[in-house]
Amino acid sequence: MNKRLVVILAEVFGLRESEIHPDLKKADVGVWDSLKQMDLVMTLEREYAIALEIPDILRMVSVKGILEVLTEKGVSLAD
Q1: Confidence of residue 61 (pLDDT cuts 50, 70, 90)
Q2: Confidence class of residue 11 from pLDDT cuts 50, 70 and 90?
Q3: pLDDT average, residue stretch 50-77
Q4: Which long-range contacts (CB under 8 A, 24 or more apart) does 25-34 make?
Q5: Cα angle vertex 11, ends 75, 13, to 5°?
Q6: What region, left, alpha or beta, does residue 49 occupy, with left being phi > 0 and alpha being psi -120 to 50 degrees?
Q7: Hey, what domains does the chain have and what are their CATH numbers?
């Protein structure tokens, strides 16, 4: 998985990098609430110079969903 994204997710959600994997879902992370979701959105927009729309944000309820949205936005996730 992309190291930069792992670092971002770990920082936003207060997790260890080793806990970040594609199958991780919002329900698995106790602190992943609406405020953390917006923190995630703002961080991703700033880090990758993209604009996320409401439908994108609604799909980002898992690491897999985040990866899909970023890929569709043209973000290169190759390490």
Answers
A1: very high
A2: very high
A3: 97
A4: 25/61, 25/62, 25/63, 26/61, 26/62
A5: 100
A6: left
A7: 3-72 (1.10.1200.10)
d(C-alpha 6, C-alpha 8), whole Å: 5
Both structure tokens of 24: 């991780």
CA–CA distance, 40 with 69 (Å, rounded to integer): 13
Q: Which residue has the tokens 């998985």?
A: 1
pLDDT above 90 covers a percentage of the chain that reads 96
**Model pLDDT, residue 79:** 75
Task: For 17-75, list the strands marked E by DSSP.
Answer: none
CA distance 33 to 17: 19
